[in-house]
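Hi V.,

You were right to ask for the full record rather than a summary. Here it is.
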Amino acid sequence: MISLDMSSVYALGAAFSWCLASVFGHRPAVELGSVHFNRLRMVVSTAMLAIYGVLTGVTFAVPSEAMGLIVLSGLIGAAGGDYFLFKTMQRLGPRRTGVLFAANAPIAAVLGWMFLNEVLSTKHVLAIVIGFVGIVLAIIYGKRRDLAHVWENITPPLWLGVLFGMMAALGQAIGVLLMRPVMEGGLDPVVAGCLRTSVAMLVFWAILPVDAIKGRLPPRFLPPKHLIIPILCNGFFGLAFGVALLLKALETGPVGTVAILSATSPLMLLPFVWAKTRLVPPAGAWVGAVLVVLCSAMLVDG
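Predicted structure:
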């Protein structure tokens, strides 16, 4: 069984923080689009982490050998992964997005087998199959016929939203694997998180001229008042507090355990869906989320 040492507590805290980020991120993602929303939230997150680091006297010196991994993690995990994450949320809503994003755990296991020579046992393969079944159940059979709420709407085609979700999960898995040796080296999680989001922020702002030329910017560049609080909360829970907790967990916790525990967001999100829609989520949503978490637990124990 998984022992709840401090690294596990931090990983579970990251999962809950990302659950809150999903709750606050849906409306801005739909109204602003994934790129512009990420452009704004990256500024918020980087500023929060930088201010916190300065106020607490953190040293922002980074070993040269770690910088390359941080940049790659920022490009693949924070920029690429978050772009596809909110493209998925636009199309499938927060619940289904959370389930797809949790696929980063079995993806990390497969990547470890492919590139790190880690053993992929029969139990691991079974866990991955269970996780896949859980994702299918939660996405296809996870909507009640009487539940007509914006959080449960699907923008067709369904396969495109699923593809975006899997790309987000892949980006997260690669980003976590890249950050593991950096955190083992003792780099402060606030510094690591700040640099990681800075890389993603630069990417999203660098493509601003292209978006402007192609007319892909929203009518109002600055967000309307009703989106300011959701953007601030999403930036805090998603990329500042949540990522800092994840990186703190990676200091001492195994990548697999941390990735799995931080992937329990789908279950944590269901009560929020219940409260928001005032209807109990359908059986497919519960069963699918449980199977995804079971897949994660099997990967840890395996």
